[in-house]
């Protein structure tokens, strides 16, 4: 049986959830909730500006406090600017939500195109959700893992895109938000669970053991 040669310590589960949840709230959940509230209370344009205003505020706050800007926040804000422009130009909620639906296909393509990079896109985005130590991210087997798991997430986004496109074409805006949000996050949670299992298996194959919640170890 292979003996563990390296032990890598990660923060506690609560700390990891807080670290991962902040970018998710900032870039996705809060803008979506603000859009829906203002859309139902004050109209379509108000919903557009509320979502975009939140993202601008989140970026400005981090700049003022000199905090790192998560890649997911920058990407989502850039895409939200384009969505808002399309929404204002067309005045259509369908076209406003069509873009994030199409983004699933674009993101899947981006994951595949960056497979040849030293660190693919998925590895860089993972830094926003879990701060891995350098000894781990630089390991050859972990680099191979991120390239391979990128294929899994490309599949997740393709399926998610196809599903939300179908819902958008057949349901009202309210139903679309409920169904697509629940469905999307179910897919994401399943993808995360499978990725974590695969990640631990990859580490075990190299004699690397993960410990969560303990003090950092000297590798």
TrEMBL record:
Sequence intervals crossing the membrane: 33-57, 69-89, 95-115, 151-170, 176-199
Keywords, in A-Z order: Membrane, Transmembrane, Transmembrane helix
InterPro entries found in the cross-reference section: UCP010219
Key word Transmembrane present: yes
NCBIfam families named in the record: VC0807_fam
Protein name according to UniProt: Septation protein IspZ
Annotated source species: Pseudonocardia alaniniphila
């Amino acid at each position: 049986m292979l003996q563990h040669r390296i032990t890598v310590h990660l923060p506690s589960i609560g700390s990891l959830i807080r670290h991962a949840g902040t970018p998710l709230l900032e870039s996705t959940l809060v803008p979506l909730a603000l859009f829906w509230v203002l859309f139902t209370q004050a109209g379509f344009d108000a919903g557009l500006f509320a979502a975009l205003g939140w993202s601008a505020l989140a970026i400005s706050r981090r700049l003022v406090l000199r905090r790192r800007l998560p890649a997911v926040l920058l990407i989502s804000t850039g895409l939200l600017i384009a969505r808002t422009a399309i929404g204002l130009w067309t005045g259509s909620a369908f076209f406003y939500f069509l873009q994030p639906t199409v983004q699933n296909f674009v993101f899947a393509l981006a994951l595949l195109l960056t497979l040849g990079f030293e660190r693919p896109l998925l590895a860089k985005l993972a830094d926003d959700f879990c701060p891995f130590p350098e000894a781990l991210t630089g390991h050859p087997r972990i680099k191979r893992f991120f390239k391979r798991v990128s294929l899994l997430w490309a599949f997740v986004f393709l399926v998610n895109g196809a599903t939300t496109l179908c819902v958008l074409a057949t349901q009202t805006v309210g139903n679309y938000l409920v169904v697509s949000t629940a469905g999307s996050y179910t897919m994401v949670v399943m993808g995360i669970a499978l990725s974590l299992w695969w990640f631990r298996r990859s580490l075990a194959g190299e004699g690397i053991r993960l410990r969560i919640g303990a003090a950092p170890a000297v590798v």
